[in-house]
Design goal:
Oligomer: single chain
Helix content: 10-25%
Mean pLDDT: 78
Shape: globular
Number of helices: 1
Number of domains: 2
Structural class: alpha+beta
Low-confidence stretches: 20-67
Strand order of the largest sheet: 4-3-13-12-11-8
Number of strands: 13
Largest sheet: 6 strands, antiparallel
Order of helices and strands: HEEEEEEEEEEEEE
Length: about 210
């Protein structure tokens, strides 16, 4: 019986080459995917970050959040704050708006108040701020600061708030003045906030003048 060894070798080589080509075809997409993942990790690691100590040992690592605010022509950072309005900055973006409502809550203690309302450029976005003071606003009061607060920048068209404060990271509100005769509170706010993906940023230069009912 005659066996063609050269034919067997040629057939084996064709078989190996065919499966080697299939192996490369399957391997290349995995290598490309790995390179893309590495590129994304490099971009993240190369971001400009800063850290802010909360004073209680907790440190928030911050980078510019992927959720950014559009420039709003209706908000002028050089304008004076007036009754029934709020404003603040995140980075170089200045936001402002009005109140839908503001007033005391949690009974008659007058230690807790809230204010909320839409931004000047979109009725679907705005802020909610809740404040828990150490003393009552049952008389004229000045320069009262608390870190017992909650801040939200909402978006009615999204599944999550654009920004929100998170304990134990500090978000503070200062009542610069409360005049009992008029019920008007004037104050400032600032602190660390978070976007839905967990990135932190900072609210600065927050201002408000609200009638408390």
């Amino acid at each position: 019986m005659y066996i063609c060894f050269s034919c067997l070798q040629f057939g084996a080589m064709k078989f190996v080459k065919r499966y080697y080509a299939i192996f490369l075809f399957l391997l290349l997409p995995l290598l490309l995917l790995q390179n893309i993942r590495c590129a994304k990790e490099y971009s993240f690691e190369g971001a400009i970050v800063d850290t802010v100590s909360t004073g209680g040992g907790d440190t928030a690592t911050s980078q510019t959040p992927q959720t950014s605010f559009p420039y709003c022509n209706s908000c002028d950072p050089s304008s004076l704050i007036t009754l029934g309005h709020w404003s603040f900055k995140t980075g170089n973006i200045f936001q402002c708006g009005t109140f839908t409502n503001s007033g005391f809550f949690n009974g008659f203690s007058k230690k807790n108040f809230t204010f909320f309302g839409p931004s000047a450029c979109s009725i679907d976005t705005g802020i909610v701020v809740s404040v828990y003071l150490p003393i009552a606003l049952d008389r004229d009061q000045f320069n009262v600061t608390t870190v017992q607060t909650a801040f939200y920048y909402y978006d009615h068209n999204a599944s999550a708030d654009i920004l929100q404060s998170r304990p134990p990271y500090i978000f503070s509100v200062t009542v610069q003045s409360f005049i009992k005769a008029t019920g008007i509170v004037t104050g400032t706010f600032r602190g660390t906030v978070f976007s839905p993906n967990g990135d932190s940023t900072h609210v600065t230069d927050g201002r408000f003048i609200a009638p408390l009912h």
